TrEMBL record:
<protein>
    <recommendedName>
        <fullName>Endonuclease/exonuclease/phosphatase domain-containing protein</fullName>
    </recommendedName>
</protein>
<dbReference type="InterPro" id="IPR036691">
    <property type="entry name" value="Endo/exonu/phosph_ase_sf"/>
</dbReference>
Amino acid sequence: MARVEAGLGLHSWQFESNITQCNLCRILVGWDTRKISVTVIHSDPQWLTCDVKCLLDGTSIRTTFIYGDFNAIISFRDRKGGDPRWHNHMDDFSNCVAQTELIQIPVSGLHFTWHNGRQDNSPILLSLSPPPPRQKPRFKFLNLWAEQEGYEDTVKAAWESEVWGNPISRLTSKLHNLKGYLKLHHGHLTNSISDKARAAKEN
């Protein structure tokens, strides 16, 4: 296996396989140690279960990729020619995938891996991307603000604040300022309500 790994030319990569579980290496997992770390949780002749941690943001997942010759298909597009009576096997396999809560990974490249009893031995490259960063919640205007005392003065103060730039830039800046003023105004009202409720309980 060392010769195979060296022949790939991936110098910053590390590899794990299930060669200790069987005479032949059926599964070889490689990863870029500059980006992720991988810990093998369980090894079997048919599968590897790994913890994958992204070194960039610290996120981690436990993942199992299942790959093999199942002698069954999920969709008619997964085979060409042959016995047309295979739809019963297709239903059974689809039900199995659904019940085990597995997800078929979208693929690109060669679609068929067998032809006339011959296997193409094409490797599989999986790309694990970190989850997108959480976005700040969008600003929501509460209709009750317009009915509260001091609302018009708050809007006027924000709108009359001095900003620079072209007309669109000034409009954007004033809207941004207004958002801050309204949040501050809402905070004062919330504190006032809390104080009144506390005073009512004490009395």
